[in-house]
Amino acid sequence: MLLQPSRLWTWNSTIDRVPYLLTGVLLFLLKFAIDWMIATQVFGLTWSPGNYLIWPNDRVLRVFELGDPQRGFSLTMLLVSLPFIWTGVILTLQRLRSTNLPLSLVLFFFVPLVNLQMFLVLALLLRREVPVAVVVTRPVPSALDRWRKSHRTIVRESHWRSGLVAVAIAVPLAVLAVVFGAQSLQSYGFGLFVGAPFALGMISVLLFGFSRPQPLGACLSVAMVAATLTGLAIIVIALEGIICLIMAAPIAYALAIMGALVGYAIQSRPWLSDQSAALTLALIIVLPSLMAAESANEPEPALRAIQTEVVIDAPPDMVWLHVIAFPPLPEPDDWFFRSGVAYPQRADIDGIGVGAVRHCVFSTGTFVEPIAVWDVPSRLRFRVTEQPEPLRELSPYMIHPAHLDHYLQSHQGEFLLERLPDGRTRLVGTTWYTNRMWPAPYWNLWSDYIIHRIHGRVLDHIKSLSEAPQAKIQLSE
């Protein structure tokens, strides 16, 4: 029943679902045993099956930026994984060939959590039975073409009916997944942002093509409509706000389209379409389980440092006075901060030197920043002990999603003042923060951009204050 070792090098062979399932499970158990030994006995770390839901993650993508222990562990695990990756690709190709699905679907093997959903799908699909011989005695009757033409309107209406039924079932399921992941588990991870959109696209298309195969364009349209209506439903029932959904839209639509492509490939093949109901039920059962397992094994996010700099036409002594505290900024007039993202308003300081406490007032509250380094006029570093919400969600209701509470967490900040040869000052602002939303490489794009915009607002204000004529009078006093 298991795959013969010699076939691990033959990608153009086929494998039935039972040997595929058993081989996959045994290889997983073998890999887990090896990984557990490496993690616990060599590196002194803990390891559980839940780690595979979020590994590889951004630590693998940034493996050469990590410290020595983490880099060594990530490289070791990656090298050990290579034979299993090869085997997984070969098995997936053989199974795709067995069901006559597009071989390009093997790319989903490399998408976290989606690869587990694909494994489930391929383990359930039946092998295509190819007839020994096919004899064509006559061409397709032309009357069939006339029938199709005369019933074009009925077919079009059937598209609409099938699409409405598919959307009516898939959208509530997706909303329930958001409720379970974001509200119950308070986990904003791969399951919510990768697994759920992929399953939504796939399930909506499988349901759409349940009665008859549907064209690709119609399948993609149904998936996009289902994703859009899911977003609207989340806003209407006050689960999330508009800002978070706008940020999540690119990855959600992309994954929904990927799921729709898999669903289209299945429903367009008569020998597979009969299994649509079983596949839908399996995804509905498995996805919440994966989300719960991911939540229970959520890793600690990596500490990121974001720097922004500006050159000021004033000496460091003058700039320093406006770094430690600055008067109120004018209200922003650009769309970014007016949309609800928190923005700095002013900064005050109680005391002088190390131990003083700086208060940076934002539109949503106050950052409390005890001073850790006071090096006049070169360096000011502070810790962050309290912080307000990163934004106010745009919503018809007063809502407070879980991601507003310490998912985007600032840990410390620094102003570095460098005297330039021409008497000017290079001012560099740095924020060290963590982001607990996954996939980290995607959400870090948003958080990095937000922090850069906040830095820019503060540094530009310090620049204008330091270069104003009144600043020279203040310095002389």
Provide structural commentary.
The chain contains 15 helices and 7 strands. It is of the alpha+beta class. Strands 1-7-6-5-4-3-2 form a 7-stranded antiparallel beta sheet, with helices on one face. A hairpin with a 5-residue loop joins strand 6 and strand 7. About 5% of the residues have low confidence.
Task: Give the helices and strands as they follow along the chain.
Answer: HHHHHHHHHHHEHHEEEEEEHH
Strand order of the largest sheet: 1-7-6-5-4-3-2
Q: What level of helicity do the residues show?
A: 40-55%
Estimate what percentage of residues fall within beta strands: 5-15%
Helix-strand makeup class: alpha+beta
**Record field, number of beta strands:** 7
Quaternary arrangement of the chains shown?
single chain
Number of helices: 15
Mean pLDDT: 86
Which SSEs are present, and which pair or pack?
Elements: H1 17-42, H2 58-61, H3 68-99, H4 114-124, H5 142-150, H6 152-184, H7 190-208, H8 216-236, H9 242-267, H10 270-273, H11 276-296, E1 304-312, H12 316-324, H13 335-338, E2 344-350, E3 357-362, E4 365-375, E5 379-383, E6 408-419, E7 425-435, H14 440-467, H15 469-476
Antiparallel strand pairs: 1-7, 2-3, 3-4, 4-5, 5-6, 6-7
Helix pairs in contact: 1-3, 1-4, 4-11, 6-7, 6-8, 6-11, 7-8, 7-9, 7-11, 8-9, 12-14
